[in-house]
């Protein structure tokens, strides 16, 4: 039996068999088919991280159910006017954003382009399956392993729930320089079930246009799982290889291998798998985990010896975390202690935030630098990796440098003796 409700919102229903009684009442939320802004056909276009960035590109976006077809279409070209454009199709599915008494339903669309050339700029439009449902022209650039450097930036907790002014200011600064990819350490969204108050302002601010087509690699934080225990909403919007708690994946961009572990309660199991299966030709290896290993929260506790051992076994150079709404960088660490072996030592970061939250803050002896949220108000990091070195720089949201760290390869690694 199928029944179509005439009104959205909280509803109560029951089943009844004539002469035999009725069931208990069942409460449910009927989602509205949420419209986009008048005249807008597609929304929130993103160029997402991919596991083959030299030859493929993931693109995702949102469309309204009532005004679109159940179709995900892209046309792309190396020409700015899209002449000779190649068509491609992907998947379109309805995703619901359900709160306690109301909800929104929209189409989330995804297309993966393949067979691309490395190091090339492409121009593209996405379409909603209707004749006039095409977006503005956007761009992306495929990765190039032969480039002299691999550049990326890192954003900590954003927790978008209305005010995205600092995020917008930071993206304006970042767009002025080319980046190969970006990392977001989790809690980009404060409440993933609230489309209009959370996703709408976030995707209006952070999208393929404002990112300049930079691929965005997401770790999922605890807030991505509130009301969505499997992370399916974020997994769909960002087209993630893994959206489950403690799910992990690796993406290699040029000289940098990025491994992401989503938030959860069993990081050890994920790290065991990573340490046993890590296989990359990249020079530099970074781990991204929403919860920092050496946190600034006074309740963080000490990392377990097994976690530290597995991180070192996998050969990570840096570990980037978020969650604590503060900035910190450790000294090079091995087996839980500071080390003079700066090449092998792992440097752990708490990557600041662009939110309005301030958490309790405590310094650790292992920190080289530690700055509470109230002293920077908003923060982002950039990094440049070459064959010889990788430099990570932290800035406040106004672009003032806060910290800088460089790790260099040894002369033996570089074949100098």
List keywords for this structure.
about 425 residues, mainly beta, seven-stranded mixed sheet, six-stranded mixed sheet, 5 helices, globular
How would you characterize the overall build of this protein?
It is a single chain. The chain has 417 residues and is mainly beta. 12% of the residues lie in helices and 35% in strands. The protein is built from 5 helices and 28 strands. The protein has helices spanning 165-174, 195-205, 232-237, 267-277, 305-314; strands at residues 9-13, 16-17, 21-22, 26-30, 32-33, 42-48, 57-63, 73-77, 86-89, 91-98, 103-113, 121-127, 138-141, 150-155, 181-184, 215-218, 248-253, 256-261, 284-289, 318-321, 326-330, 333-334, 337-338, 347-351, 367-372, 379-385, 389-396, 401-408. The protein has a 7-stranded mixed sheet with strand order 17-18-19-20-24-21-25, covered by helices on one side. The protein has a 6-stranded mixed sheet with strand order 16-15-14-26-27-28, with no helix packed on it. It is globular, with a radius of gyration of 23 Å. The protein starts with 8 loop residues before the first strand and ends in a 9-residue tail after the last strand. The relative contact order is 0.11.
